[in-house]
Design goal:
Layout: H1 2-41, E1 46-48, H2 51-54, H3 59-73, E2 84-88, E3 94-98, E4 101-110, E5 115-124, E6 137-139, H4 159-163, E7 169-172, E8 178-185, E9 196-203, H5 208-224, E10 234-239
Parallel strand pairs: 1-2, 9-10
Antiparallel strand pairs: 2-4, 3-4, 4-5, 5-6, 7-8, 8-9
């Protein structure tokens, strides 16, 4: 009788171990499939072809930059159908090293799409480091760093962040109205407190025709940069003095 009980007990223990093993394998399989599906649903559309010529950072940082650039690029190109070659611009790569930590900054060009971005990322080769933050910051370049005439860079879902690189903007309309465009912030107690808007001064000196011409100029200028005028708040102010 004792022998029978021992056999039953051992069999039950083996079943429990087998059951737990199956559960662990099943969960692991789900995780792997989820990762694969995630990567397939949003694969990087950018391949930096000269990364190793400039940086000795591990491959995972290159992949993080390519993924972050893809996400930013999709703000301008929602449907990317292929993988585009990108290259670090010559003489733009800067690497500041402090106690084995590299703070890197460079310009990344995508010739086929005529787009450029500023890339910032930090990495370390210290073996004792517990820094698991593998990420990159992608922003639009300054006007003086733009090399493509038709570039329409977007690096933020808020268009006023992207148009800010063109401001302040001052010009004269055909009717002789001087226009100055800049960014300001709505004060507390207004309809949109804390929101930023385009503050527009138009030197029209009570000439309604010039004032209207100045407003139309602003709308056309925004469209010429491939922005939507309806995405912004405005405050048009007629003035007579200097702007």
């Amino acid at each position: 009788m004792d022998t029978i009980k021992l056999i039953i007990k051992n069999t039950t223990a083996k079943q429990k171990v087998l059951f737990l093993s199956v559960i662990i394998i099943f969960v692991a399989a789900i995780i792997v499939v989820s990762i694969l599906l995630s990567n397939n649903n949003n694969p990087a559309k950018i391949k930096i072809i000269n990364f190793s010529e400039y940086s000795s950072a591990p491959q995972k940082y290159k992949q993080a930059i390519e993924n972050a650039t893809t996400t930013t690029l999709e703000l301008s190109y929602p449907k990317l159908e292929k993988i585009y070659d990108a290259e670090i611009r010559k003489d733009s790569y800067k690497d500041k090293v402090d106690d084995e930590t590299h703070r890197v900054n460079f310009l990344l060009d995508i010739p086929e799409l005529e787009q450029s971005y500023v890339v910032n990322f930090t990495w370390t080769n210290a073996k004792s480091s517990y820094n698991n933050d593998i990420s990159a910051e992608i922003t639009c370049p300054r006007i003086e760093d733009m090399i493509y005439e038709n570039s329409t860079c977007r690096s933020s879902e808020n268009p006023i962040d992207d148009i800010s690189k063109y401001l302040p903007h001052v010009n004269m309309t055909e009717s002789g109205a001087a226009v100055r465009i800049n960014i300001a912030t709505f004060l507390e107690g207004t309809e949109h407190p804390g929101e930023r808007y385009l503050s527009v001064l138009i030197r029209s000196c009570k000439d309604e025709g010039k004032f209207l011409d100045g407003q139309n100029y602003v709308i056309d200028w925004i469209k010429s940069l491939d922005f939507k005028p309806e995405d912004f708040y405005y405050n048009f102010t007629p003035v007579c003095g200097q702007i």
